[in-house]
Amino acid sequence: MVNQNLTATEIGFTHEDFAALLDKYDYHFSPGDVVPGTVFSIEPRGALIDIGAKTAAYIPIQEMSINRVDAPEEVLQSNETREFFILTDENEDGQLTLSIRRIEYMRAWERVRQLQAEDATVRSGVFATNRGGALVRIEGLRGFIPGSHISTRKPKEELVGEELPLKFLEVDEERNRLVLSHRRALVERKMNRLEVGEVVIGTVRGIKPYGAFIDIGGVSGLLHISEISHEHIDTPHSVFNVNDEVKVMIIDLDAERGRISLSTKQLEPEPGDMIKNRDLVYDKAEEMAAKYREQMLAKQQGIALPTEDAENLIEEDIPSATEDAVVEEEITAVEEITAVEEIPAVEEIPAVEEIPAAIEE
Q1: Which of 242, 224, 214, 258 is nearest to 326 (CA)?
Q2: Domain S1 motif: where (predicted)?
C-alpha cells in the first residue's frame, strides 16, 4: 500500500523539478517554421492542432486553404496529421497561430516558376475582368492578363467563365505579381503551323501610321509600311481599309515576343504593283512566294543569286518584327486594344493603377 503521507523531499521530485523537466523537453517554435501537427478539435471557424507545444495551436478558417473554405471540415478531419506553417508567435495565452494556406502558396510559386522555366502553356478560366484586363487563377495564385494581351473579339466582360490558353509574362513572388498573355499563347500555337515564306489570307483589323495589323486566323501580324510595296507609300491608309481581305507572305516569326511580320512587297511581280494592280499581286502570290523561298534557301546555302534576284533580297528591306521601336511599343492583339502600362486591381480602380497581387491578403 502506497504511503500518501510521503513528503516531496522523501519522493525526491518537486513541482519545480517537474516544470523544469517540461521546459527541458519543450520545443521552441518560430514564425515561418513548418511543423507536423495533429487535428484534435474542430471548431466552427477554425481548429485546434497539437504540434507538441504546451498549449494547442490554432488555425483559423481563412488560413486553411489557398482557395475559399466555408467550413473547416472541407479541409481537415479529426486526428488527421499533416504539415502546418507557423504564422504568428505565441499570444498572451501561449497559443500559436498556424496556416496551411501559406504552405500552398509557397508550393504554388515554386510550381509557376517551374512552368515559366519550361515555357509551358497553361489553361485557366477567367473569373473577373476590370478596366485593365482579366483575372485568372494559376495553381491557386491570382494571375492577371493585360488587355493588350487578350486576343478575342468578345468584350472583356463576356470572357468571365471562359477558359483561355496562357503564357507567362512575369512571375515575381517578391513583388507578388503573376502576369500572363493570351495573345502569346495563340501566336505560339499558330506559329507552330506557320512558316516563313508561306502565303496566308487575312483581314485588315487596324491601321496605324507605321503599318497595318492583319488578322490571320485569330492572331495578329504586322504588315509594316516598308513591306507594303517597293514604291514609296505615305500612309497605309492610301492602300488599305479596315476589313479589307488581303494576301500576305510571312517574312518573320518571333516566337519569343509573339510577333508575326508580314509582307506584300515581296509578292509584287513588278515594283509598285500593290498600288497599281493589287489583283495581279494576289494572283501571282504563290508563284512569287516560291521564288522568295528559293532565294532565301540559296542565301542560306551561300549560293550566288542572279543580280536581279539578289536585289530583291537586300536584308535591310526585310524588317524584323521588332525592328521599329514604335512597333515594339504599339503592337497589339487582333482587335488592337491599347496597351495598359499600369494595371488596376479588380476590386476598385485606384488613382494609381497597378497589377493585382497574386496573393489576396
Answers
A1: 224
A2: 32-101, 119-183, 197-265
The residues facing 170 across adjacent strands are 179
Q: Which amino acid would we find at residue 143?
A: G
Distances in Å between the alpha carbon of 182 and those of 114, 135, 152, 284?
19, 12, 9, 35
Whether the CB-CB separation of 263 and 227 falls below 8 Å is answered with yes
Place of cell 506584300: 264
Which residues, including other chains, have CB under 8 Å from residue 22's CB and lie 6 or more apart?
A: 54
Q: Which residue has the cell 550566288?
A: 304
pTM: 0.61
Which pairing describes strands 97-99 and 34-43: parallel, antiparallel, or unpaired?
A: unpaired
Q: Contact 225/263 with Cβ under 8 angstroms?
A: no
Whole-angstrom CA distances from 6 to 17, 27, 173 are: 17, 33, 63
Give Cα 99 to chain centroid, integer Å: 27
Nearest to 305 by CA among 315, 295, 297, 318: 295
CB neighbour class for 78 (10 Å; exposed up to 12, middle 13-18, buried from 19): exposed
pLDDT digits (tens, 9 = 90+) for 8-23: 445 555 656 645 555 5
Classify residue 279 by its DSSP letter: H
